[in-house]
Amino acid sequence: MKKIWKKVSFVMMLIFTLMIFAPYTVMADTQVVSTPVKVVVDVQLTAADKIFVPSSEPIYETDDCLKTTAAFKIVPESDKDDDLISKYNVTATYDGSVYFSAPTIGDVPIHIDSSKIKINYNSNEDYQFVLGKVLSSTAKLLDNGAAGPTQDEQKQQIEDAKKAEDILYTKLGTSLGIAGDVPEFSWGGDKSADQEKEGTVTFSDEDWGIFSSARSGYKGIRAGYYDDWFKSIQTGLQKMKDAGITARDVKMTEWEKLVLAITAIGYDPRDIKAYDLIDIISNKENMKASNEYFTPQYAIYALTSRNYIDLIPNDGKHITKDDLDGYIHEWAKGALGSKGADGSAVIGNTTPDMWTMQLQPIAAYYNPNAKEGDEYYDVKQAMDHVFAQFSNAQTYKGSFWGGSVDLDGSIDLNNAWTNAQVYMTLGMAHANIFDKMYIKDGKTILDGVLERFDVKNGTTDFDNSSYEPAQICRGIDSLVRAAEGRVSIFDCTDVKDSTVPVNNAIAALPDVYKITSADKEKVDAARAAYDKLSDVKKASIKQETINKLTDAEKKLSQSQPVKVTGIGLDKTSADLMKGDTLQLTAAITPKYATNTKIDWSSSDPTVASVDENGKVAALKKGTAVITAVSEDNRDAKAQCTITIKENLSVTGITFDKTSVKLIPKAALQLTPTITPNDATNQKVDWSSSDPTVAAVDKSGKVTAIKVGTAAITANTEDGNKTASCAVTVVDGQGAIVINNVKLKNKLALAAGKDSDYEGYFTPDDLASIKGTIDLSNLDITDSDMDVMKYLKGVSAINLSDNKDLTNSSFKKLKFDWIIPKGLDFSGCTGMKDIKNNMFAFASSKLTSIKLPVGISSIPTSCFSNSKLLASVEISNTVKSVGNLAFSGCTSLAYMKIPGSVTQLGSGCFSGCTNLSVLDLTDTSLTKDNIKDTKCPDSTMIICGKNVKLSPGQISIKIGGVQKIANEIPSGKSVLWGSTDANVVKVSSEGVITGVNPGTAYIYAKTDDDSYGGVCTVTVTKDTPPQPVSVTGISLDRTSASMAEGDTLQLTAAVTPQDATNKKVDWSSSDKTIAAVDENGKVTAVKSGAAAITAVSEDNNDAKAQCTVTVMGNNMPKPIQITNLTKDSSFKLGNDVKVSVKAENNSGKDQDASLLVALYDEGGKFINYVCGKQTIKNGDSSILTGIMKLPEEGIYKLKAFIWDSLENMNPLSDIIDIPVQSNK
């Protein structure tokens, strides 16, 4: 019964509850709740103007000197809200401070904390008023009315500015590249991977330093320095071109800056022989390919620096003056800035350097008197706006504010980059720098300039770590030029002793055969201009330019008709296809001959005809001789043999491989052979049956992508003949792919494989390499460096002279540090800098390092706590060593600082507890100015002039003695010392005695620190050496072609170099074709092919092979040569000029090197000259070699063609040339 009641009670209570709350529940579902409407309002503040009174510097954004007051007004976002604002009494209050943004004198933006604005209004249920925008507002920081400088004071400021430039050049001359010896020109960076984009190659030529100092007229530079710099550019660019660097590989701005520097020192960039600099910087495609931000701006500076723009052809491919004008008008439009709500221009109070640099070139086109309708009226409008903004951004100090605020809130009022760009812009516009609009609180622009100089004492707080000094000097010089009314800094028409106008004058002369007496005045003027040049400038002008002037003078000076003495053709032979045409060009000797008319004829006009202008038409298959004869002298003639071929069809194609296995990412070059080898059209199209497995490019390079199979097919365009190679891509897990062939061959040998090994490597393969490995000059790139981490057993890696390596190759992750390692980066000119803390990491076991030429500094903490680092070789391009650079390097016993270093950072040798000798000889450093380095008190510091200790490196046994010679001047007191007397001791006379095994340094110095020198001594035990096993062997050649009866000396090299048993056993796979003796001398027996093998006696697994192909004497040579040498023999002491016609019948394009070789009477090779050229299949070429013969002796000359000096494969017969006595 109780249970029933409980159930009933529960139900009744539930019903009662629902009855009570049901009405309210229904009401909640149906009642409309009223939500206030949000009304967004803006706030306009009006701040009070004030006269700026500076506080102590630095000035912060929230300093009281920038504080002001302001009134706040509500502004509706919509006109319909006006009545609501009034009805509900909407106002704004602000509980915070109001500040000017910066101490610039003029209209200054106001800064507030918008979170402290409160919107107030009458309480109501309909509207809620919320803050929208705080409208921008400015107020005036007023000039204090201080008087500006008098005219005399202005003149003094200009003179002080000139002195400031000299102070900066003198202090930082080395970093600017204008002090000491001219550094060797070098380059670094990546070549262009896509011809539509430029590469990243840059120059180490300090062109801005050269340009700036030359334009400033800096007199502290060594006489002849600019001349030597230009010579280094000439030489360096030629080396760069020979290394295969194209114009597109280099950043455009590098070329543009180089043109400016060359022009500024009075040379002509058109006299650079390796590259056509003006063509490069005016090429539209180069401009389009450039990624550099200021390429167009620099192009304008360079092309107008000496009016080169007027000489550029209007061919659609090059920039013209109209194109430059297009840039100017475009930038003028961009410089006008934005408009305010009332339509007026918005004038800011900042001058960011990038903004200024972008518009800067238009300043040169500014004319304050330009009127509407004038060509550059838009430039006037733009520059007037820019000048107004400059004025509004000028601070109370006279400097210009770029908008920079440091992290601590301090305002950077005198940023050197910002101000230098403003100075240059004002100078280019020839602005009045003492105009009242640029005088603030009595301070001028030059007051801002001179703030960081103590002109009286000749000092400045500028250094090379914060700002680029050359840019600062260009800015100062621009102001000085404007004040003195001189041309602007980028207008080099004021350069004296310049070769540019001389070249222009000569280029403007008519061709010599058109010269008449009416041209005499022009010729005389060109000669007068040339004669005024210095001798070194004259020598820089191209010889063909000088020849044009002298030929013109000869033509004018002749009183009688000048007879033609000779004639030459630009070609002496040519192969044409039927239907082709060829323009032959004749050259008359002398050029100034009176009658230069030429008669043309063909030996067989049915085969090849020629018109009166030398244009040849190929009519049918055969040979004809085209003759050019002087009308003036019928004995003066030249000929060209024309061979006309008809189309020869392709009949087949084969591959050097028909199947191959690869792993993913591996690459393989397939080589097709076309039949016949002289087929006319040998173009091949490549394809892959599955590019997702193996892809192939247009040259036949196959790249494995993923596991699978694919057929690589080559299809001839002529005849549709095909060849295929089956590519199987297998799982390459754990495999290491090396695509750099040179590096691969080197590592293969070191790992005990054949030098031409085509497979992949395993980590164990590379870990098996021990000791030192030489990887120098292998064209290693950054991507190749990933393999270094697998060289776990290597203790030293020589990476020198790999010029394509960049800074990323320094990264610690590139190397395995289980075994301590030494690294050699000398000659790696692509490395330009090192980062802070580069080798300062916990696992570093760096034992030695040779730094690359090109880096300018060793940065902060670079090698900190590299406790095993015992040897550092610093390159002579380093100018400073950073703070803590070598701190904690406890194994460092000796440090040589090169003469290029002018600054050692604070604490750079702190904690170097074993640093025995710090060698500062040949530097400007002394004991007094390196105290902050914190080297140990026990360190012997050697200063003064470096003198040679001889020998420089000594190895003696325990108990051994040796006298060390020195070159310290007599009369000087010499102090001798050893860094470790427990290893080697030295007497006061320089006699050393070996004490215990080890290495130590012996030094000799004068007591007045005027001279000093150091040598290295290694003391060894008198114990028998341990045998060193051979691990690899290589040959100087892997293939060779020989004629029957020829001999060839092969040379084997064993690895490691200090192996105990270096004996090699030689064998031939077929002695009836090619035999080899016990010394590696190969004799060609009969036609065929044989493999010559060299095997180490110490390790039979160490072997190498050379494939020898023997050609029968009756077999035609790949290159047929005909002796064209005029002289049948030559006399001793005379010059030899040998010319041959080389015809390529090899079936492929062929590299051909003409060797003119000199042998003594016993057949010993004495000397040679070599000329190299690539000859297309079926073509011919004239090759010439010139040599000076000895004065006495018995000799013979031979001329022949090899494929190259490296391979020395003979391609032709030998021509014997007699040598006669000179008696």
Automatic annotation (TrEMBL):
SUPFAM superfamilies: Invasin/intimin cell-adhesion fragments, L domain-like. Pfam families: Big_2 (PF02368), LRR_5 (PF13306). Residues 1-28 form the signal peptide. SMART domains: BID_2. Residues 1025-1122 form the Ig-like domain. Keywords: Signal. The keyword Transcription does not apply. This is Bacterial Ig-like domain (Group 2).
